[in-house]
Write a structure and sequence with these properties.
UDP-N-acetylmuramoyl-L-alanine:D-glutamate ligase; single chain; 264 residues
């Protein structure tokens, strides 16, 4: 039986990020995907033109419907949109040791569109403490810590400080500062072990949905019973292939190919 994973995130009408990317990733990595939609975006590869939050009681109902009927092994969250939704989701997710929680602290889209209300940042910081792993990129980590991050040494300290702030394992993603021709460096810290993860810098033209895909892949690994670092490495390998085999769609930042492992 395929392990069940639940994604709680926004919908991307262009299909490249959000719920759509998560479900594709779950399927490609041998999991059965379920979902609770927090917001509906009018979105394509060129940007986000509108966002509509789903009423909290409907989000709560989606989560309850899934958890009441499916043996969920892992949950990942993406776009949480508002403080009211974060409070609702936090109350709806059970504290169970066998359900891993991966939180991608989505605040701003790669196109610059705001995806989290500014008054929801304190609620998000509190929610991060519930997670098994958080996966901030550099701009998100800077907001969470209230300072800028420049060097690899800065990243290592930031990962340790985020752990101290949340008591949650951290994967700090460095793609936003990667330079042409160099490696992308991410920092993993679980409270005792710190590791620098390298990956080749891929074509930035086809990176829409990378954060969603990475966190979804980690949740899939955890649902299969893998350890945290093993799940991170599995997802990073999957992501690299999905970017390298991108379909070349859209006039902006294009989507990934989540079917690349199947040769499609």
């Amino acid at each position: 039986m395929h392990p069940v994973v639940l994604t709680i995130a926004g919908s991307d009408s262009g299909g490249g990020a959000g719920i759509q990317a998560d479900l594709k990733t779950f399927q490609a990595l041998g999991c059965f995907g379920t979902s609770a939609i927090t917001a509906i975006t009018c979105q394509n590869t060129l940007g986000v033109s509108a966002v509509h939050g789903v009423p909290p009681e409907i989000v709560q109902g989606q989560i309850k419907a899934v958890l009441d009927d499916f043996p969920v092994r892992a949950i990942k969250t993406g776009m949480l949109f508002s403080a009211a939704l974060i409070d609702t989701i936090e109350a709806a997710i059970p504290l169970r040791d066998y359900i891993a929680l991966v939180v991608d602290p989505v605040m701003v889209a790669s196109t610059g569109a705001r995806l989290l209300a500014s008054d929801a940042e304190s609620a998000l910081k509190r929610f991060l403490k519930r997670a098994t792993l958080i996966t901030p990129n550099l701009p998100e980590a800077e907001v969470l810590l209230g300072r800028q991050i420049f060097t690899l040494s800065d990243m290592e300290q930031a990962a340790m400080d985020l752990f101290a702030q949340t008591q949650t394992a951290v994967l700090l993603k460095g793609g936003h500062r990667a330079e042409h021709g160099k490696m992308v460096l991410d920092v993993f810290f679980d409270g005792t072990h710190i590791e620098i993860l390298e990956a080749p810098l891929m074509d930035a033209r086809h990176t829409h949905g990378t954060g969603c895909t990475l966190s979804a892949g980690i949740a899939a690994g955890l649902a299969h019973g893998m350890g945290l670092l093993e799940s991170v490495k599995l997802s990073k390998e999957f992501l690299i292939g999905a970017i390298a085999n991108a379909p070349g769609l859209g006039g902006g930042t294009g989507p990934l190919n989540h079917l690349w492992k199947m040769g499609k």
